[in-house]
Amino acid sequence: MRAVVQRVSRAQVSTEGGIIGEIQKGLLVLLGVAENDTETDANWMVQKVLNCRIFPDQNKKMNLSLIDINGEALIVSQFTLFANIQKGNRPSFIKAANPTKAQEMYEYCIRKFNDNMAQEVQTGSFGAMMDVSLNNAGPVTIIFDSHSKI
Fold it and tell me: What is the pLDDT of residue 46?
């Protein structure tokens, strides 16, 4: 499982029907699921993201987590995080989970985030064409990978 996590002052996701998810101070989580991911990977990912100390404390040091600041989260599924461009110029997505498994794991992660947060998680629409906009605060962007534990 991979996630690109951005600390934001605001973020939103929309489809042709309009805005479907929107947050203020918190984290935008772009989440990719691999074919071999399990609930163990998802649990690791959720806990790492929730507890990563990337928000400033009173001394402006990155020392507080999303939980500490009672921030918001917007989680958007993004299979392209498993793009492989080693051969040629057209990405291969063979390591990404099939849509059924990916959606199950995506929804599992959302439930786990909701179990640990005071505010309800905002989401994109799985499998839809979406526009994501954000104000990256810092900027701060962290990449998480449950298979390499980074």
Answer: 98
Element containing residue 28 per DSSP (H, E): strand 26-32
CATH number, domain with residue 96: 3.50.80.10
* Residue 123, in any domain of the structure: yes
User: How many independent structural domains does the chain possess?
Assistant: 1
For residue 20, the tally of other CB atoms under 10 A from its CB is 16
Domain contains 150: no
Residue 142 has pLDDT above 70, yes or no: yes
Catalytic residue (one of 40, 80, 100, 123): 80
Which string of DSSP letters, residue by residue, matches 72-130? EEEEEE-GGGG-B-SSSSS-B-TTBPPHHHHHHHHHHHHHHHHHH-SSPPEE--TTS--
The pTM of this model reads: 0.94
Q: Is residue 38 annotated as part of the catalytic site, yes or no?
A: no
* CA distance linking residue 83 with residue 46, whole number of Å: 22
